[in-house]
Amino acid sequence: METLFIKDIGEITIRKSKKAKRISIRINQGGEVQTILPQWAPYRAGKIFAQKKKNWILKHLNKSGSFSGRKIIFTENSSFKTWNHDLIISREGNEIIGFNICPGLIKVIVPEQFNIEDDDIQTFIREAISRALRIEAAEYLPERLKYISEKFDLKYNNLSLRNQKTLWGSCSSKNNINLNVNLMRLPTHLIDYVLLHELVHTKHKNHGPDFWNTLHLYSGNAKKLARELRNFSIQLMEPVS
């Protein structure tokens, strides 16, 4: 078994199966993406196939989420905050858009002549929020992951923090863990659930019965937490009324 990292998707497991007659992509209920190979196919062929299918994978990952809605449109009247930062959008007479992150504040300056609802402006505002989330994630997630790892004796190697569109986290075959900075928009008990979920993958690489039994033993109610997590979107979306 091997793994492949694809931007916006995360870790993809490449594995062989005696039953497989052709190369295929499988996405399970937990969002884990696998490329399944026949025994005769080289792992390189699976990696090339997964890269070619990136758009298909993204489409089906987004479909699999139970949370749907439209993207939040940020304006100068928006009320939005992360754990430690309030967003303020200021319309000024500047010619260049900019943002500044300081303790407790994300300040975005949008020139008055710009249409704030344009996609480019909205992307810029989201990038400012992402920077603040990355700061918060770097301050909180490494220590929290270490604590949970030691508590349940689940050892991992390296930790990476990324801004991904479809996965809250992933664990590679080498026990390297990736965590999404957007975890910082979740309640603390769901952050712990995602961290524990990835740590259990250091013992069980798939989402089979052994994985869920172990996760349930450590979390208390894994299936309930998994359902609760589906009510949250990784991307900044408005809930459907």
Entry summary:
The chain is α/β, with parallel strands linked by helices and 241 residues long.
CATH architecture of the largest domain: 2-Layer Sandwich
CATH C-level of the largest domain: Alpha Beta
Low-confidence stretches: none
Number of DSSP E strands: 12
User: What share of the residues does DSSP label as strand, in percent?
Assistant: 15-25%
| Residue-averaged pLDDT | 87
Order of helices and strands: EEEEHHEEEEHEEEHHHE
| CATH topology title of the largest domain | Zincin-like
Distance between the termini: 43 Å
Structure description:
This protein is of the alpha/beta class and 241 residues long. The protein folds into two domains: 63 residues, no CATH class; 170 residues, Metalloproteases ("zincins"), catalytic domain (Zincin-like). The protein has six helices and twelve strands. A four-stranded mixed β-sheet has the order 1-2-4-3, with helices on one face. It has a three-stranded mixed β-sheet with strand order 6-8-7, covered by helices on one side. Strand 10 and strand 11 form a beta hairpin. The radius of gyration is 20 Å and the shape is globular. The model has no long low-confidence stretch (mean pLDDT 87).
